[in-house]
Design goal:
- The longest helix is centred in the first third of the chain and has 57 residues.
- α2 packs antiparallel against α8 and α5 packs across α8.
- The chain is built from 26 helices and 20 strands.
- Helix content is about 50%, strand content about 10%.
- The C terminus is likely disordered.
- It starts with a helix and ends in a 24-residue tail after the last helix.
- With about 850 residues, it is of the alpha+beta class.
- Strands 16, 17, 18, 19 and 20 form a 5-stranded antiparallel beta sheet that branches. A 4-stranded antiparallel beta sheet has the order 8-9-11-12.
Length: about 850
Amino acid sequence: MVPNRDVFAPTLGLSYNLLAIAEEEDRLTVVVGGANRYFRIGLIVGVLAILADFLLELALLRQLSVFNTGLGLWVFISQFLIAAALLLILVVVGSFACRTVHRSSGTRKPWIVYYILLGLAIFGAFTSGLNNGLSLDVKYSTYLGKAGIDYLNLQYLGGAVIWTALGLTALFMLSDPRISYGAGEDGKKRLYMHSKLLGLLRLFRIANLGDVFPRRRYGDYSKPREPVQWDIGENLDHAVLSKSGKLEWNDRFPVRSPSFLAWTAIKFLLALGIAAVIANDIALRFLTIQNYMTQTNSSWAAQIGNYFGILGMRLAGTYQVSPTFGIDNVFTFEVFRLILSLLGLAFIVLGIRFGISIIPNFLVGITKKALGMSRKALSSLFTIILMPLAYSLLTSGTWVYDVGTSFILWNLLIFIVGFAFLAGITRRQRILHFKMTWIKGIIILMIVLAAAIAPPSFATFLRAQSGQYINYQWNPAYVPTIQYTRWSYGVDSITSAGLSTITSYTNQTNVLNHIRIFTNSSARLNMRPLVGVNWMSIDNAPVDIVYIDGTEYWVSILQLVQANYANDVDVWRTQHLLLTHSEKILAVNAATTETVDMSTIWKLTQTPQVYYGEGGLWSSVDEVYLNIPGFNETHLTSYKGPPSYNGTPDYTYKGFWLYWKFFWQGRFDFANGNYGNIKALEYRDVNDRLSNILLPNMQMDPDPYPVVDNQGNIYLLHWIWVDWKSPSDFADYPEHTQTSILRLFGAVLTDVKTGAVAGYLYNNGKTDYVTSFYRSMYPQWSQPMPSWLIPQLRYPEQYFNTQQDVTTSTSRQTHYSGRGTCSSNQPRTPGSSSHRSVET
């Protein structure tokens, strides 16, 4: 009997479908397994590539002198950590994305793109690391050889900046160091760590927000809004945990999950970036404080105890203090300002964490009527409000007080106690049993209003008492702040002087003889026809006043500029090999504009050779190369001196680094060593050259002027001063526009031929903590000024103008109070003669 085909057709079709399904399941199993294997390979290859980049960079950079120091190695490691974090993000995110595409489509093409991007990223990191390392070695070698200064030691404060940055990064990363060990959705136990941001994103990602807020056409509200459904479960892979009938927001994630690893790398970059911005300031203040504590045999505990003693005194209502109160306690205020800075960072981190946690606790608590979560949200809100109030209370020791300020302080303390009570009580279930009646509400409201209004009202009443201005406001607030402001700007030793002092010092004829008739603009116009060449210019060159043997001269070192050579096919070689220096200095008599020969006045035996100057090619061309065969430096026809630079170079490129430097510039003849080792002059703009070795808060006179020693060597002189932020409110009360501690630090000379930098500390008569620290960082400059330099010194104009403004403002305050007058006489110039001039 022949079987009926129609009877067996459904059975055969079903068997074929089952076979196809089985084959598809096998294929998916193979695809998923292959995707997971490629994912692990991608991670391993990425980590090995990062490690190979690190080892290769380290091996090459060790050839440079800067990385043969302990501090140099730490600098390299800290910089490589940034690159490694970026590469790690690429490895984790790229591998995860390729695995996802591989699983869904079955194609392996995304992995080809991944490895191409990984190779390019590794090469970019390698190239950037070598370039940064070479630049750092150029700076390090230049300043060590020409200034005797360890650039790394200044830039990183002996390593304190690096340690501070890494320490702050670690604190940011471990702001919530809790680790949990629990089971996930699959029942396997693993390590979990907390992440508030990822927890919030997971809460919204899994919830049915699309159904709750659907896109509707205008006026279409026929369908009711769906209730919010949160991801609630009993294991640690859910957004909200349900235990014993209580809901709790879950912010824990598996340590090995790609999202947590990627966010950790991103958070590390953010933390390191923020730490790098603030580490310099924190490390500088810490070292400044520690240096002065060592000198004065003080301690952190003693200074903190002193500060809280001041705070307790203020809370007790004491407002009358000595006129030197701000000066006597300035170091204590500085110590606590550093502590408050660190405390402020902690408050910001905690505030962000509490702020993020408010959102899920409030939303889930309201929608699910979970009062425990709602209470946590409310408590977090009160805690956020409490932190800035507490910070303000702790800073109140540095406030300026009059008769009513203590009452404002007590008002602040009442608010702190109130919000602390609310933050604590809302975390307890006991608040749910408190029954509010209208009588209780009125009593509570009256207490709050009385506490908020009474202290400031009484303070206003006291300030308004007629006839008590001197005792209630002037003596406690203005007198100490005026004394402090004058001390902080170094004008506290200025005495009153009248017109009779000037007339008795000299006669009218002598005064008229020293009046400067011609300005620098007119002097520039008179000297412009004397330039004579196209590769030097006076148009943008500084024109400075100098005083020599009783006569003033307007002097200009001509600026090195780009010459318009005909048929110049290689401007790079012209700028780096031919136009290396300026050779002309013009001068006119400031009273008569008569042209003078500075070579005669300065007793120069050779034509000036100015390889370092201001602006022009000195600034726009990063470096010049010396003694290159076949290329001669440009000279005047009347030039007298060596045919080329005969001093010590700033840096010499050789070996692998010679090739690396010039290969990327396309200068293959240099890279291949056709001219041997290449000697270079670096940082030829004197302003940039000096600014590189100045610590934070140090400023220099923006207009250096020329001086000459007995051997005819020409220098550009910069005055340097320290502009330190005052740690209290005593500076320039009540406007607070002049809030610095200003200290004249020293005079620095830059040899215009060799680029050698020499400094001479100025004894300003101050022994405060600011001066003490900065002096300790420049022991090379602790030397007496040479006798030939003293007659050529002039007081820094910008520094003088600032002191004059402060003297004028404090004198005006004193005058208005009816307590006397003060003059704005110019402070004594170090080693100055009787003659004095300020350009107008």
